[in-house]
Amino acid sequence: MSVYSLGLGIGTKSGVGELLEVYYPAPQLNPKGEWVDKVLGYIKNPESAVHEIRLEKAKLIADMIPNHPKFDDTTRTIIFTVLKDDRAPSSTAEAYLKLHLLSHRLVRPHETNLTGIFRTLPNVAWTNEGAIAIDELAKRQLSARLKGRYLSVNSVDKFPKMTDYIVPSGVRIAHTARVRLGAYVGEGSTIMHEGFINFNAGCEGPNMIEGRISAGVMVDSGTDLGGGCSTMGTLSGGNDIVISIGKNCLLGANSGCGIPLGDNCTIEAGLYITGGSKINILNKAGEIEKSVKAASLSGVSDLLFRRNSLKGYIECKPLKAAIVLNDELHSHN
Amino acid sequence: MSVYSLGLGIGTKSGVGELLEVYYPAPQLNPKGEWVDKVLGYIKNPESAVHEIRLEKAKLIADMIPNHPKFDDTTRTIIFTVLKDDRAPSSTAEAYLKLHLLSHRLVRPHETNLTGIFRTLPNVAWTNEGAIAIDELAKRQLSARLKGRYLSVNSVDKFPKMTDYIVPSGVRIAHTARVRLGAYVGEGSTIMHEGFINFNAGCEGPNMIEGRISAGVMVDSGTDLGGGCSTMGTLSGGNDIVISIGKNCLLGANSGCGIPLGDNCTIEAGLYITGGSKINILNKAGEIEKSVKAASLSGVSDLLFRRNSLKGYIECKPLKAAIVLNDELHSHN
Amino acid sequence: MSVYSLGLGIGTKSGVGELLEVYYPAPQLNPKGEWVDKVLGYIKNPESAVHEIRLEKAKLIADMIPNHPKFDDTTRTIIFTVLKDDRAPSSTAEAYLKLHLLSHRLVRPHETNLTGIFRTLPNVAWTNEGAIAIDELAKRQLSARLKGRYLSVNSVDKFPKMTDYIVPSGVRIAHTARVRLGAYVGEGSTIMHEGFINFNAGCEGPNMIEGRISAGVMVDSGTDLGGGCSTMGTLSGGNDIVISIGKNCLLGANSGCGIPLGDNCTIEAGLYITGGSKINILNKAGEIEKSVKAASLSGVSDLLFRRNSLKGYIECKPLKAAIVLNDELHSHN
Question: What's the complex ipTM?
């Protein structure tokens, strides 16, 4: 039988039995082989995607999945999730499996269907004692204080931080609280303290990321995001253009980008380019040729964007040949 | 008897008996009813605001305060604080009670007297083992290391993070280290990783906060602060204008605001407006009418601020009717 | 015998015996006195810089170093490091000792040789259970989950956060995850939540730091870095100018500085000055005298930088006498 993804996980439940989160140590994408049918044979209700299973069964399944770590004894909730196809997640366990696929680099941003994921994720208090249901928190806090324990709430969010689930190979993430589960962090990437990566977003690697990669944004290899720079996300509303940043670009510190950027582009420190910014295009001689909306430069490579510091306008200088506009977008100017 | 506020709390003391912090699970504002007199009858020295009490008395008081959680056995320091009126706090326990009133949404920013609060708050090392006095920290760190424990210092500050004391209902706070106790976080607010809220500051809710709400600043409902945007605080010196942001505004990513903003205003991404910025006012036809200091637009609604990307000047476009200046401020231009 | 530095430390090893980090409670710079020779007499192989020693020897050495805290019983790895001169670090233990010298304020940024330090520092998972080798992390995470423990990874980086090693006197650091070991934080400094200090960088104190101090950058006393402001680092490539910020300067919120700044300078909120920015110099009457590259204003004092909000150009206004350019840099314009 062919399935889209499956994962054996350990979950945390609230006091009333609501599933708060699931950790899948070794999620599988498009698993193939005889073992898949065998594993699915263990499931009682094969029409369901999410199965709470017992330890013995979990041990058997873990042993059958190639390269899956051994499952030791535990009293925790064990979840076995099977996604037959790539439909929108309809439960917490399914959503977490899809977020794992991204952070395990099994899929890239936009390659798995996350429609409606917010509805499937409970808001959770992420504490030094693990995930706690929001409406059970106050009682837990008082109890901990009385007992002399320090219960610290590090995040109140639908998404946990990625590194508590998976640290992909070959990365540095200086301050992990700023990278959500569901981020794609490519091999060779360094995410500095000011870096941020939302879910369904990421960088191909190698990259130096000291700015913010908003939900839906993908940054290609060799590109640096300077300190505090901004990429415009699609969740901010109004805008359905998916921003991406090409290869070998440099977004300067405190700059911003609201258009899909081609390869080898530079945005000077402190300059924010939005799709509606009007920009003076320079020719190779440095003279103004014409003015266009930034959106018409979407995807064009080899551009330097800066604000002329004596004239105040935004200018775009070709770094190689003369600039060829993105016709489709330019025609809508 | 009428009192301004009271709270039953659990405190942490330094090795030499200095009170470092107090956690009040259920602070009371303007408590009314017979129970108030009864509770105050338990206090030995009614002229004092702060009372260290024994467990038995704490249990009795907790039972008498309506809806107060039960007080279980504890060996911790128990503090009962009674503020007869809203005077400036003169001790750590009083200051913490006032900060709780804000974060429990019992008062809004500027509604309780915090004069001189910095003097009442000790600088504390906030660690994974709780609050530690600064001058006892080095010894504790060495001792923990020798014993193989990991003592981590998450903050060295006069203010703790809010969520270790109270998570108000209906909020998400993705990275809690950036919201101080004394912040007011309205129902329906999402504070993203780049968001920040100082004490005596906050947002009415619902809001999407990805920028910084400085001390003293209040953000009204329906307003979005974009990633990395800045609001000017009153603690930064020189400026005694209290900044506020009206309803349904949008401060773009990496923008900034140094004037009180009216409703339905937008500041474009990357643009910083200070009170002294000179701004070209556009009429409905898009022509420049005159130039004014930004301060004279304080509190005016329905404005779009942007930097003309071809001319370099800052312009302000009316979104509805023509702009009517704030006369009082304009006359000082 | 004269040595450059020595330190008695407690280390963490990976499962295969690799040293991941070393904590030196009381590092010594240029130690003098008879005790130095005596202490060195305890070392078996005096040509080596790094010595793993036994508890008894550590206790003896701790007692001989003036003002060194007593060394209690421990089963941890004990490291005694002796740097005969200030050469580039060639091992983890040496690198950590040098980073301690900076954060203990025994040397200032650029005063100790850190050449090649990245090669000597392993990438480490900094967790609530201490330092863990990256390739041992996944197994530890699964094991902790099965056992119901919450293993949280706070950073994946070559540098730990400073405050887990040393909190220097007289500082506040609101969010310690943003200050690396190797930062120099002067007496009287407040590092707010948005502040950041890299290694081999810092501030003299007193300072209010709400912006980012990049690697190699030093900020002099009395200077404020506004929220989200940026200083250009030397690690970002291309640029070998070491940025420094003079006394009593103000970098406004969301501003940036890419030149060494003199004393008493202000950069307006939201304005980024890079070395290549062309700037209109104003005379005392406020008229434009000439245009220069920002680099030629390197180190010049008493300057106000702002973008003329009606003309769009960057201007520099002398705050005292007329501006005298930095001739050496100006001649390269």
Answer: 0.95
